[in-house]
Specification:
Blueprint: H1 17-50, H2 53-56, H3 68-78, H4 81-112, H5 118-128, H6 137-146, H7 154-157, H8 164-177, H9 180-188, H10 193-204, H11 206-222, H12 225-230, H13 239-245, H14 254-289
Helix pairs in contact: 1-3, 1-14, 3-14, 4-8, 4-11, 4-13, 5-8, 11-14, 13-14
Length: 290
């Protein structure tokens, strides 16, 4: 007996063990999903740079040509496309910012303020999400016409400043991320409801508001039906309406239409390139706290 106790060897977990457990099938599946998602945009560029023969050839042409810049120049000559892009930026950005604030205000009221009929009103808001958007076109147009807003940008902006989904989204984040004790402490310090919202509640849910704004920005940018109904003047057209104007009455220049669609998609790609990581962080923040 030497009095020395031998220790059992301790197995150290490799740092890459968790990554190793994911395995190549997962990465293969993710790669295939990315290719499927990106391919329509890539093929749009191919058709715009090659022409109609990229579609009519058998097998179809999958490599881009050298005519894209000529097609892009023709797009800007055929319609006031630069002005249409600017109109889309103004409309989408205004709705994204204002709707995030207004929906956060409504979400704060439904989540943290106690007033008569709160649950009934919130139920009505949720029920409006079950109504198809197409059913609201006629009454919405009648209201816009009564206000003399037809053929104006505010006819697009004002109806989109709040949404049932946005209110529900912010209400859920307010309920799960903001403590009631923090509100009570602020009220004891003399803060009113607006001060509590702007200085305490909104900074806490700012990532969720940013995600909501980005979702609304994308939805408004891609919207075609409502701007097509209320806008008549070419100088007020949004990007999606300008793409429609690239098509003739009886024939379609496929290269021109695809070039316009690709150019209208580029601003969204740029936005997601710079803020995509922040958007994912905002979604995950709500997921962990919810």
């Amino acid at each position: 007996m030497t009095g020395v106790i031998e220790r059992a060897p301790v197995r150290r977990r490799r740092r890459g063990s968790r990554v190793g457990r994911v395995g190549w099938p997962t990465y293969l599946g993710l790669g295939i999903a990315v290719l499927i998602s990106v391919f329509p945009l890539y093929y749009m560029f191919v058709v715009a740079s090659v022409g109609a023969k990229a579609v009519t050839s058998s097998p179809p042409i999958l490599l881009p040509g050298f005519n894209f810049f000529e097609v892009a120049a023709k797009v800007f000559e055929t319609v006031p496309f630069a002005l249409s892009l600017w109109n889309s930026v103004v409309v989408s950005l205004t709705i994204a910012v204002v709707s995030a604030i207004l929906c956060a205000l409504a979400g704060y009221a439904f989540a943290k303020l106690d007033f008569p009929g709160r649950n009934i009103l919130f139920l009505i808001v949720l029920l409006t999400m079950t109504v198809p958007a197409q059913l609201s076109v006629i009454p919405q147009y009648l209201i816009v016409s009564w206000l003399n807003w037809v053929d104006t940008l505010q006819a697009i902006i004002v109806p989109g400043l709040a949404s049932a989904f946005g209110i529900f989204w912010m209400r859920q984040h307010m309920s799960t991320t903001m403590n009631d004790e923090l509100m009570h402490a602020a009220r004891m310090d003399g803060a009113n409801s607006w001060q509590i919202f702007w200085r305490i509640a909104f900074p806490i849910v700012r990532p969720a508001a940013f995600v909501l704004g980005l979702i609304n920005f994308t939805a408004v940018w891609n919207d075609f039906m409502w701007p097509f109904i209320v806008l008549k003047s070419p100088e007020l057209f949004t990007a999606q309406i300008a793409i429609k104007q690239l098509q003739a009455n009886r024939s379609i220049d496929v290269a021109l239409a695809m070039g316009g669609s690709f150019l209208a998609t580029l601003p969204l790609l740029i936005v997601f390139f710079f803020v995509g990581r922040r958007m994912v962080a905002g979604i995950m923040d709500g997921a962990f706290k919810g």
